[in-house]
Each structure stands twice: as C-alpha cells, then as structure tokens.
Amino acid sequence: MNRLLCFLLLLSIFQTDHYQTLRNDMVKTQLEAQGIHNPSVLNAMRKVPRHQLVPGNVRHLAYEDGPLPIGYGQTISQPYIVAFMTEAIDPKPCMKVLEIGTGSGYQAAVLGEIVAEVYTIEIVEPLGTKAQKDLEKLGYKNVHVRVGDGYKGWPEQAPFDAIIVTAAPEKVPQPLIDQLKEGGKMIIPVGSNANTQELRLLEKRKGKIRTTSLLPVRFVPFTRDTLK
C-alpha cells in the first residue's frame, strides 16, 4: 500500500509539473509571441488549469492553439482570444466584471485571478451548472454563476467596470450598454454571420459609447431565451 501511495503521489506531481510546463509554453508561444503583454493576464493564463475546464475527451488538446468543443453546440475559445479579450478591458484588482456566456468557466476563471468579482451568465443550463461546480472545486469564490438569458445582463449587480461577451449577437444588447459603468469597457463579437463577425471594444465616456473594431473573429451565435 505504501508503494502504491508513493507511486500515486509521484504520478500526481508529474502530471502537475507537466500541465504547468504546457501552460508556460502556451503563454510564451501563443500569447507573448502574438503581442499579449499585460503581466496580470499572462500570470492568470499561466495559473488557470484549462485542462480541468474542458471535457475529458479533448483534455489532451487543452493548451493547443485552437478552440475546443464543450458540448451542446458550444466551444471554448482558443487561449489567445481569451487573453486578448481579457487584456482589452484593462483588468484591475478592484474591478467588478460581467461575462456573458460562461461556457466551461475558463474565461471566468482567468478573470477571477485578476479582478475582485466576476458575474457570469450561461443560458445552457447543463453547462452553467457544471461550470459553477468546476469553478467552486477550483476555489474561485469570487466568481458568481447564473443560468439565464445574458441579453438582460445582471441588473442587480450593475453597474460593471467591464463586460466580456463570448457569443456573437447581431447588434450590441442595449441592457449591457446600460449596465456598463461610466468609463467602463465592453468587448463583444458582433455579426449574425460567422464569416463576417468582428470583435469590438466599446468604451462609455460621458454617457456616450465609442466603438473600436479590433479584429475578425468566429464565435457561436448569441442565444436568447424566447420562452420568457
């Protein structure tokens, strides 16, 4: 029994070191090499165990440069896009951030490493429930998950210092604009056609929105709850 326990302990240490090595390589080759420089974002990406937030059948691909399926027609964005969107809102330790589209919980975990509070909404109930359990297991007490229609935002917790949207609507939802704090930033993919979507950065200044187009992207469509 002692030998077995020793073997299991050594195996656990090896796996931990292996995944940390993969994360370090991911940050160096996929993020830093492509222009991600924010130290807080890079540190979060080195720390969050992405392999524990994807289905087991694609776990071996967790740190590859590409999106992954997570079930129910949804995906987890490639690491670069997660880092790019996080860096774009200029995250600070004092901030309260809203995320629309929890998915596996990975983006929320990255945010949870940097900002004070994260409020994240997922419309697909099984995904939201699983993400909540996984995030709790990983110790993210500052990440709050709600299952529901993200179009409406989370008015009880508004205003937010920043908003990240990880699904593409045809146009920016007005409730999210309303819930963005003065001086706040929202990053969101916009476009009904996956071939014509663009990632936009919105900044609220004196009650008005300034929009900057950042880059072409492909996200899953923004889903609404049409029964309510």
The description of the largest β-sheet is:
7 strands, mixed
CATH 2nd-level architecture: 3-Layer(aba) Sandwich
Succession of helices and strands: HHEEHEHEHEEHEEE
Percentage of helical residues? 25-40%
User: Which regions contain 5 or more consecutive residues with pLDDT less than 50?
Assistant: none
Quaternary structure: single chain
Total of domains: 1
**What CATH first level would be assigned?**
Alpha Beta
Mean pLDDT: 91
Give the class from helix and strand content and strand pairing.
alpha/beta
Order of adjacent strands in the largest pleated sheet:
5-4-3-6-7-8-9
Indicate the proportion of strand residues: 25-35%
Estimate the global geometry from the Cα principal axes. Answer: globular
CATH fold type:
Rossmann fold
How far apart are the termini? 57 Å
CATH homologous superfamily identity: Vaccinia Virus protein VP39
Number of strands: 9
How would you characterize this protein structure?
With 228 residues, this protein is an alpha/beta fold. The protein has one domain: Vaccinia Virus protein VP39 (Rossmann fold, 3-Layer(aba) Sandwich), CATH 3.40.50. The protein has six helices and nine strands. The strands form two sheets. Strands 5-4-3-6-7-8-9 form a seven-stranded mixed beta sheet. Helix 1 runs antiparallel to helix 2. The longest helix is centred in the N-terminal third of the chain and has 30 residues. 39% of the residues are buried. The mean pLDDT is 91.
